[in-house]
Amino acid sequence: MTARDRLSWFNFSPGDYMTDPAVRAMSYEQRGRYVDVLCAMYLRNSGSATEDEIRVWAGCSEDEWKHHREGIQRAFKVTRNGRWIQKRVEVEVREAKKRVEQARKSGREGAKKRWGSMGLV
Q: What is the CATH number of domain 11-88?
C-alpha cells in the first residue's frame, strides 16, 4: 500500500469509545494499547489482523500479552481461522475508501471540464 492510499485520519467517536462495554472493561493500560492497535489498523486500511499483529501493535512482549490479551480481545470478533476483526474499523475504512474514491473521481471530472474548455484535452 502506498502512502497515497493510506488514510490520514479516521472517524473516532468519543461517545462510542466511552460507552462501549468491551472497552470500559479494559484496564487503563489496555485501553491505551487498544487505541494504538486501532491506529495501526487504520494505517493499514484493514479491520482485521492476526493475533500476533495485534500483539505487536499493542506494544506487548509475549509475556505481557498473556496479561493483556483477554481484555483487548473483548473489542474484537475472533474468527475460526484466528483473524481478529474490529467491525467498526472495517465499516469506517470501507466508508472512507468510498469517500476518497468519490473525491478522486470528482477531481478528475472537474479537471477534464477545465482543461477541455481550454482546448487542452
A: 1.10.10
